[in-house]
Amino acid sequence: MDLKVIQRDPITQKISFSFGKNFEFIDGIEELIQIFIINLYSIPGKNIFFPNEGGGVLELLGSNVDLNDKTSLISAIKQMIEKTKNEIMERQENIENKELKLKNVTLYHIDNGFSSDEIEITIQIENEKGQMTKFIF
User: Fold this and answer.
1) How far apart, in whole angstroms, are the C-alpha atoms of residue 136 and residue 123?
2) Could you tell me what percent of the chain has a pLDDT over 70?
3) How far apart are the first and last CA of the chain?
4) pLDDT tens-place string over residues 94-103
5) Which of 25, 55, 58, 63 is 20 to 30 A from 120, comparing alpha carbons?
């Protein structure tokens, strides 16, 4: 069980960070989504407990990524997703709860957001229990 720091809209499935006054706990596949998102956003070298880990998506902010060049954008995001997936899978050897064990991650698509400098990424996560869920960030 983990403290909930992300929200997933029940209709759009969009992920947003939420640090409210009310503490909530999550478990199961929702906790796995949170673990994945936080690791995907993390920048390698910034976490003192896992200094080499982090997908690095936040490094894309302010970088010279051409949002119109979908090929290089998709390639960069695929590499970040794969890196995050591998890091999480390496750390889950001692986890017995199959709901919290990552089995697979699939990048479904990347769309333009509401503004010209915004993108939406749709991912599906599957755990060892066989549960699958899609989300957008």
Assistant:
1) 6
2) 92
3) 23
4) 999 999 999 9
5) 25
